[in-house]
User: Fold these one by one.
Assistant:
Number 1:
Amino acid sequence: SMEGWIANTQYWSIKDGVITARQPQGVGQNNLFIRRTYHNFILKAQFKVIEGNTGVLFRAKPDKKGSTGSGYQMDLRTERAFERNGWLEFEPLLGNVRPSPSALARLRKSYKKQDWNECKITADGKHIKIQINGVTMAETENERYRSGFIGCQLSGQAHAMFKDIRVKVLP
């Protein structure tokens, strides 16, 4: 159910443990957040990008409209913008850490198009590490955001699914 989540149910739903998000062109950014603040953690989730631009938000602070006011975002994309997979973005558009060409080449070998893949985010103090299918896509030290919500994001015309979201809280 959507209990414990903050989302626009016009675009987000949960059925049989799978979060499904779909929105048409022209909607802009749309988010789903867990109603809890996290500091240090390891997040693992299965994701499937059918169309467009999606991602995982963390240490995020939504604005009054439910968009990401500030926080971090891990980009997840389709083949059309494959090179954006695993980007670590600092919202609102304050910069990013991009995967190396060799990381993208390793990901391309394990990535299953329009099928389930795994993402992992480690946020421990100022250390942040982003992985997709076991490939480290971005790793940095950054103290801009120390705590906030965890969520999923859609931008523009998009269709994505998430399941098996697990968060291990770190000391």
Number 2:
Amino acid sequence: AENGILKVGRLTDFQAHQIEHQLGAYTIATMARLAVIHPAYYRHILKDAEAKFTRFANMVFGKDTEQEGLDALTAFIQECGCPPRLRQLKSKVEITETVLRNVADTCSLIKSAPRALRRDEIYEILCECCDAGDTKVKRFFQSFLLRHAEPCCCGLLPMIMRQMKQKLSHD
């Protein structure tokens, strides 16, 4: 169990765990939630810590790139029999976009490495965890892009648009 001793004096990354805690109000099985959230979270922050993810890929899975390492982690989680999507977990309620928004809006935000997330980013991660192939989620992202077409000072909109084009082209 994580008890804080190993991270004394270090900036650590437990944002995925904070997301998982909030999601616990709706679903059962802590480890399964973490298994679903971590790959999506890592995909989201991959470019913010390329060297760290490349080292992880090499040391843990014998892979050369951060993306290969993340793919290997995702495959390993699936080999362990963990459900790859939130909607496949036992749940107290139906996991809807409203539930995901509530989780994102109430999740503890922590200053973590490689960077702190915003609530909208947490919501995006949760939507990805739900089901990348879910047409309701796709329609939501498409409507989000139409509603928020003005320039974004942080560059978030171009990133979302690239991700949406990639996801839609793979389906």
